[in-house]
Fold this protein.
Amino acid sequence: MLKKILAISGKPGLYKLVSQGKNMLIVESLLTGKRTPAYTHEKIISLGDIAMFTNSDEVPLADVLENMKQLENGGKASVTTKDDEKKLREYLEKVLPDFDRDRVYVTDIKKLISWYNLLTEKGYTDFKEEEEAAAQDETKEETATADTPAE
């Protein structure tokens, strides 16, 4: 699900990928529902490609959002983007205890909270479903290939 949700630099909110054109994507705003073109010169990134820094590795955004969903029992975040830095960092520590305090900025935490609230508000709550299904399909294909005798 997160592969088709996009963040576009310079534009507020998140966008759902609707279609592709020659030099653009057709996206639909999750905030307003309006469809607009997003051109190739704009910085566009899929939420499925985003990860958060931890002290040991990077954690995919889907895992972080899933942790938030479990912490909040599927509801909106208990903190807001207007809360102070200390409260925001304490909240992220509950969600992702090992996050890198030097490389994860307060603006990143605010963006994470606003994205989580927008996604849950619009009913996009299966953060890991597609990724896990795709991984399971790949495993099945590898197993099936391994089981096929060589001729």
About this structure: The beta strands are 5-8, 15-20, 24-29, 35-39, 44-46, 51-53, 58-60.
